[in-house]
């Protein structure tokens, strides 16, 4: 049994073990895309955890017969299950595997107590026929093995949020068939981050790449906390057809004084400054085309630019999933001409935990 797997050892065939998000990261690494290094805590680790701690039967007893429309009862049962998970101890052999993976990542990056993102990766997440995106939790700037362990359990517990339970019931996904892996990945010290679509999400035009970004970590964009800058680029000519600069009043950053990730006001003089230069836009488009060609379908991509590394080595892809609107409806505008930003909002806010 593999309790953890390095991203370099993962590809699309690994999805049952590492979930959609982590499988995608491994695929991109194999395609030569620059992805922050890391490893996955496998679904076997999760299954072993709920089995060895004796909470598996308790979880499915609590969840049986849940009415997704009875909000009070749903919330109560969700909280009870998540408390069971967070309150149980990870088996020692799994702890040792995670600690070894984290220590190797520290050595690889030349840092002690490397800041990492701890992200959930469900086995039904990011499928073209279902929009599970954002239903489980993400913990940014996690430092030290104790906090990594704690956040792994929080990610496991997020499989049973009220929203996730309700979504599975209403979409006929059996609870026991959706497993969860956790990605532990080097944090990008981001000056700017965002999303890009390898088609125009307002009309499905496959000849365009639409990039949306803002200052700091990308969670302000995917969570809908800011109106991002928007750039529309022609894939063939590489001409930037549209530049829309918005007032970006909030950024998500690590505050070293508080030792936590926070939302902060952007300096007034930076709020209306464009967050991407033309060379960065062109590099993003180049990478977007490689990713789309690799997967053979339109993609919805999350990117981040590190402030401490020279361009272009500072441009990282932190996630790519199949675009779920136009990939299923190629003729009729199913979103009513909404922007990529609005589409992200309609998925539901991505759950990023800030202290």
General description of the model:
This protein has helices spanning 15-30, 43-52, 56-63, 71-86, 92-109, 145-157, 162-170, 219-222, 278-295, 340-347, and strands at residues 4-6, 38-41, 116-122, 137-142, 180-186, 190-197, 208-215, 229-234, 240-244, 250-255, 260-265, 299-306, 315-322, 351-353. The protein is built from 10 helices and 14 strands. The two termini are 34 Å apart. Strands 1-2-5-3-4-14 form a 6-stranded mixed beta sheet. Helix 3 packs antiparallel against helix 4 (71-86). With 355 residues, it is an alpha+beta fold. It has 2 domains: 4-186, ATP-grasp fold, A domain (Dna Ligase, domain 1, 2-Layer Sandwich), CATH 3.30.1490; 190-346, D-amino Acid Aminotransferase, Chain A, domain 1.
Name its key features.
355 residues; alpha+beta; Dna Ligase, domain 1; D-amino Acid Aminotransferase, Chain A, domain 1; 2 domains; six-stranded antiparallel sheet; 10 helices; 34% helix
Question: What is the third-level CATH name, the topology of the largest domain?
Answer: Dna Ligase, domain 1
**What fraction, in percent, of the residue positions are helical?**
25-40%
Largest sheet: 6 strands, mixed
Number of domains: 2
Number of strands: 14
Could you say which overall geometry the principal axes of the C-alpha atoms support? globular
**Largest sheet strand order:** 1-2-5-3-4-14
Structural class label: alpha+beta
Report the uncertain regions: 331-339, 341-349
């Amino acid at each position: 049994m593999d309790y953890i797997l390095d991203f370099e050892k993962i590809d699309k065939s690994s999805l049952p073990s590492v979930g959609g998000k982590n499988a995608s990261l491994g695929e991109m690494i194999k395609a030569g895309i620059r992805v922050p290094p890391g490893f996955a805590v496998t679904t076997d680790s999760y299954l072993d955890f709920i089995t060895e701690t004796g909470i598996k039967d308790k979880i499915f007893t609590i969840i049986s017969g849940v009415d997704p429309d009875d909000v009070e009862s749903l919330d109560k049962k969700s909280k009870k299950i998540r408390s069971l998970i967070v309150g149980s101890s990870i088996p020692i052999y799994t702890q040792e595997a995670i600690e070894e993976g984290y220590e190797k990542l520290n050595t690889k990056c030349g840092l002690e107590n490397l800041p990492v993102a701890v992200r959930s990766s469900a086995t039904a997440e990011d499928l073209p026929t279902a929009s599970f995106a954002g239903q489980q939790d993400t913990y940014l700037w996690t430092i030290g093995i104790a906090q990594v362990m704690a956040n792994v359990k929080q990610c496991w517990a997020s499989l049973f949020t009220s929203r996730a339970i309700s979504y599975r019931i209403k979409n006929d996904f059996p609870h026991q068939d959706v497993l969860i892996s956790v990605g532990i990945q080097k944090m990008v010290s981001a000056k700017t981050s965002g999303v890009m679509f390898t088609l125009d999400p307002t009309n499905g035009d496959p000849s365009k790449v639409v990039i949306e970004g803002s200052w700091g970590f990308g969670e302000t964009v995917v969570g809908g906390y800011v109106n991002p800058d928007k750039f529309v680029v022609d894939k063939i000519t590489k001409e930037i057809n549209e530049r829309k600069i918005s007032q970006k009043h909030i950024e998500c950053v690590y505050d070293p004084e508080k030792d936590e990730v926070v939302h902060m006001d952007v300096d007034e003089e930076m709020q209306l400054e464009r967050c991407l230069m033309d060379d960065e836009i062109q590099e993003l488009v180049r990478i977007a085309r490689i990713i789309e060609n690799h997967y053979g379908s339109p993609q919805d991509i999350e990117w981040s630019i590190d402030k401490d590394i020279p361009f272009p080595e500072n441009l990282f892809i932190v996630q790519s999933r199949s675009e779920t609107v136009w990939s299923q409806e190629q003729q009729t505008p199913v979103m009513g001409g909404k922007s990529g930003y609005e589409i992200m909002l309609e998925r539901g806010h991505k759950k990023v935990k800030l202290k």
